[in-house]
């Protein structure tokens, strides 16, 4: 049986880094952000161009132009989500099906908006990546092109960190440093890995 682990966390909490730690331990990870990049250069591009003309350049969605088209416009953002979310979900479903067929014991679905999109029904357990609010803020505002306004707009669309932690099966705090986070990842894998206890 394949256990599907949902990995989530608010912006700047260290989710992508934690996903790489699972991969380092040999656990396959489906990265929703990476899937979006692939889709923006593939099947999603004509659908997005049809809804947001001028956002596709040479067959690939220009993320800067797209951000300008939807930023501060809730209806436009919702229209974008209605195009992209089903495609990402299908990509993830294919990933899980492939690993079930192979008999992979654990796979991770890295879903940035797991709670916001009702993704709990797609996974068996949930890992929430967290960090202190001041550390989150420092990380996010150090990103190129990030502003206080953009950060506030992103946070407004996300379930609060405290609520995410309440609904998690496992919590990984990246604010304590890389090594404690890595040990926490290993502990999650140990807890979920099938053992041979029953055979003894």
Automatic annotation (TrEMBL):
Its EC number is 2.7.1.24. Pathway: Cofactor biosynthesis; coenzyme A biosynthesis; CoA from (R)-pantothenate: step 5/5. The keyword Cytoplasm applies. ATP binds at residues 12-17. It is found in: Cytoplasm. InterPro entries: Depp_CoAkinase, P-loop_NTPase. It is an enzyme of class 2 (transferase). Keywords: ATP-binding, Coenzyme A biosynthesis, Cytoplasm, Kinase, Nucleotide-binding, Transferase. Pfam families: CoaE (PF01121). It catalyses: 3'-dephospho-CoA + ATP = ADP + CoA + H(+). It comes from the Bacteria. PROSITE patterns: DPCK. GO terms for molecular function: dephospho-CoA kinase activity. Catalyzes the phosphorylation of the 3'-hydroxyl group of dephosphocoenzyme A to form coenzyme A. HAMAP family: Dephospho_CoA_kinase. Belongs to the CoaE family. This is Dephospho-CoA kinase. It comes from Nitratireductor kimnyeongensis.
């Amino acid at each position: 049986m394949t256990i599907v682990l949902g990995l989530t966390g608010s912006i700047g909490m260290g989710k992508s880094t934690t996903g790489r730690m699972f991969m380092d331990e040999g656990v396959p990870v489906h990265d929703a952000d990476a899937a979006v990049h692939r889709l923006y250069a593939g099947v999603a591009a004509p659908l997005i161009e049809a809804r947001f003309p001028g956002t596709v350049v040479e067959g690939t969605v220009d993320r800067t132009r797209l951000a300008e088209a939807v930023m501060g416009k809730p209806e436009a953002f919702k229209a974008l989500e209605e195009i992209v979310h089903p495609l990402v979900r299908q990509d993830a479903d294919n990933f899980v099906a492939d690993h079930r067929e192979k008999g992979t014991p654990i796979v991770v679905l890295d879903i940035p908006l797991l709670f916001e999109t009702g993704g709990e029904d797609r996974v068996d357990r949930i890992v929430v990546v967290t960090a202190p609010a001041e550390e989150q803020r420092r990380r996010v505002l150090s990103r190129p092109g990030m502003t206080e306004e953009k950060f506030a707009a992103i946070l407004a669309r996300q379930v609060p960190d405290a609520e995410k932690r309440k609904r998690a099966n496992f919590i990984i705090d990246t604010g304590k440093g890389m090594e404690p986070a890595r040990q926490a990842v290993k502990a999650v894998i140990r807890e979920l890995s099938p053992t041979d206890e029953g055979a003894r």
